[in-house]
Amino acid sequence: AVPHNSLTFDLPVSSKLPNLPASEVPSKAKVVWHKFSSQTDFERDMYFYGTFPEDFTWGVSSAAYQIEGGWDADGKGPSIWDNFTHVPGNIKNNDTGDIACDSYNKVEEDIYLLRALGVKNYRFSLSWPRIFPNGRNNSINSHGVDYYNRLIDGLVANNITPIITLYHWDLPQALQDIGGWESSALIDLFDSYADFCFRTFGDRVKFWITINEPQVIAWASYGSGELPPNVKDPGSAPYKVAHILLKAHARVYHTYDDKYRASQRGVIALCPNIDWAEPKTPSDPKDIEAADRYLQFLVGWFAHPVFKNGDYPEVMKWKVGNRSELQNLPSSRLPVFTAEERDYIRGTADVFFFNTYTSKIEVLTKVDSSWRLLNWIKEEYGNPPIYIIENGVGLATKSSIDDNTRIFYYKTYIDEALKAYKLDGVNLKGYNAWSFMDNFEWLNGYDPTFGLHQVDFDNPNRPRTPKRSAVYYAEIIRNNGIPLPKEDEFLYGEFPKNFWWSVATAAYQVRKPRRNLKVSVDTDGKGLSIWDKFSHTPLKISNDDTGDVACDSYHKIEEDVEMLKSLKVSHYRFSISWSRILPDGTTRYINEMGLNYYERDWLSLFPFCLSPQVTLYHWDLPQALQNVGGWENDTIVQRFKEYAELLFQRLGDKVKFWITLNEPYNAAYSPYVVGHNLIKAHAEAWHLYNETYRAKQGGLISITINSDWAEPRNPHNQEDVEAARRYLQVQRHPVPALPAAPGFGFMLFSVFCCSLPEFTESEKQRIKGTYDYFGLNHYTTVLAYNLNYPAGVMSDRSWLNSGSVWLKVTPFGFRKLLRWIKEEYNDPPIYVTENGVSERGAFNLNDTWRTHYHRSYINEALKAVVLDGVDLRGYTAWSLMDNFEWAVGFDERFGLYHVNFTDPNLPRRPKASARFYSQIINCNGFPDPATGSHPCLEPEPEGKRSLYVHFALCVVVVLVLALLAYKYGKLSKRSRKRKHMELHKL
């Protein structure tokens, strides 16, 4: 009986695939390389969600010699692998397959595990010498036949479809003794063995594979001689063996087609192994030709005769024939098929089975090549029904239950297969993972582990334990692919009406700080900062870039303001250069030119609707203070307080949002002393503002912290869960080339909750609660695991890359972090003060990558507000423009506006992301397209916005003057005179 979920094939008596013409080089499949060479990194690496068709078949694979054991049990004859492994030194660690996984004695246990996985099929191979001990049908071993009947019956009873490979390398030794696959006698002998299998098992088996990876047999067994029977004749033997293998396959196919197809209605094909070949330079025709030639020799060697015209690829015939001629041989080393043989071989496959693991000539950042490979098969062989029979990864470490690397492998390869099916129309019918369990991996013995199940080979009972990858793969099967998680679905809606939209820069990164490092004070009065000195130290900065000019925002205020107006942001976050105001870091000398730059030239040019968010310290400490110890010197707390007070006095009437310190732990090069001083400096500045300036200036002041979200690498492992928790409390941020420091989670803890014991009691009271809001810089997520302190971190290879090695596009972590802050710190008001993504390489104004990033991250922020009740009050994009990105110089670009650093005028140009961000701001979120066209999405007529702004300003001015006039009328004569002077001044 066929199980109800098995695939049934209503195939005609002759089910050959259509004949195709011979391939050229480069073949018509070269369109695949042309297609993907124009693909952007974003398109290539973007994770794709979706499911496969309902009849898609999921399975796992194994092979007889690798799992069965029982090498001489119950009358089984020896195979070439039995004899080969019994010779010391042939196999790593002198391992053998004598017992292997002992599946010969564990049929019920294996079926139980298969059922638990939820697979629809199980691909395994039959051991030829277990059925025919001497390789011939005059020596049938009933015990072997019974074993396979029990296995097949058990699978069918559990609704698992058997996929049987007739030959998976374990040739009976008796047949090797007569020449093995170099002897044409094996064509008849293989057919006799296959005929018996069809007759005996075919009533329950609907999938047959004749030969597994025939190229490996031909080359590794008869060319390089690595595998048994160890024939080392690379010039001729592989071609001769391949010729016989193809004839043997065709004979078996015709036997099934003629005698069994009508009643059994199954499918049959051979199964090559395919490594994808990527041209070194995809745009170079010669490289494309080389990659195509590689595939014609590897795949076309066996697939071209079967799926094309019954003959070898033309390039193979020409290449081998030409070499043979140069060697003065009487004929080509590549044998020739007769016309009759070509007709006999052509079309001897009902489907396209293949195994794939990796890529060759691969120059991409990822090797998840199945998307390209599947497209190539589609183009080259007429889009046949395709089944991936083996796909997996071996880990060269002791088998572990927690096999995270294998999960990443399946996550990416299966997703690439999904893309091929969904996006390109590849006729993909099934996927099988290699392997069902850890097993004997040929020459490598038991060291590399490919299994979804761990097998303890030190235990005579060979117990099996599901790994994390088994749980993951079972979930893929249950979902029939990779559907978008519910929590990742896009949310349409708006932020609160008073939500702040902002964009950020930092002084050293965009302004023109210095011209002359040979003097302590520059011509405009600015003092030397630690970054001025650091960036001028050879080899410290990528390409020896410096921030000497940066974006020259020092001289381009009007241009920068126009960019801000165009973005429609309500706020602009920038930092003050401490050394520009106080050249030596102290109030002994105040640089009025520097103060005027911020007070008159910069803040006065802000449009009425744009509010400043000012950071007091963004890493550029005056070098004069560093010369006396910097943040390690306790006196810096007072220096910082004096610096802050000067800014509160001079700028406080215009600034209503202050950030004391940006990412303090990145400034902490000597963590414990520096961390204390940073926190104390922040607290003193906060108290100063709170007690002296808040009442009349009415602003907010706090600290801003950078935090990645930390996800446990294994959410089911309590140690990893604890590691993620520790990382959030005590984390590092990987700023390249900055002195490393243990993270300063205690800074958060001290300010927002309870000071840690390192502070005195009075310090604790002074620090606790010194915040008006939670300032948050956030960029990415890490996977944390229990290694060292506070945690080891890694990333998921399926996460989208960026221009920074540390920054993976992980929007889901943003919402989780916001929710965590709410719960951990008693629901503080939160302002996101930085969020953005970098790019490298060739410049493109159409920065799809960044648009995707901001769309995804801002949407997660919306979910945090709407669905989680997070008190998020503002969002700031990093950064306004491409700028000096610290130790990586100008290589990494975060800007919404492009700055051409090769042009002395440093022109700014908006990228696509700038227009997109402006649209989000205009809509205050994401209007639902289902409700129809929203006015905020319509382009504004020329000058319309300017008219609205001026009208709004007029209304506000009239209201203010009316209010003043009303109050003025109620004042005494003396008060009216004083107020009149103030009003006149206003």
Automatic annotation (TrEMBL):
Membrane-spanning ranges: 947-969
Lineage top rank: taxon: Eukaryota
Q: What is its EC number?
A: 3.2.1.21
Q: What would be an example GO MF term here?
A: hydrolase activity, hydrolyzing O-glycosyl compounds
Could you tell me the Gene Ontology terms of the biological process aspect for this record?
A: carbohydrate metabolic process
Q: Does this entry carry the keyword Transmembrane?
A: yes
Which residues does UniProt assign to the signal peptide? none
Keyword list (alphabetical) reads:
Glycoprotein, Glycosidase, Hydrolase, Membrane, Transmembrane, Transmembrane helix
Identify the catalytic residues. Answer: 390 (nucleophile), 834 (nucleophile)
Which Pfam families does this one have?
Answer: Glyco_hydro_1 (PF00232)
What family does the Swiss-Prot or TrEMBL record give for this protein? Belongs to the glycosyl hydrolase 1 family.
- Assembly state and interactors? Homodimer.
Q: What is the protein's name according to its record?
A: beta-glucosidase
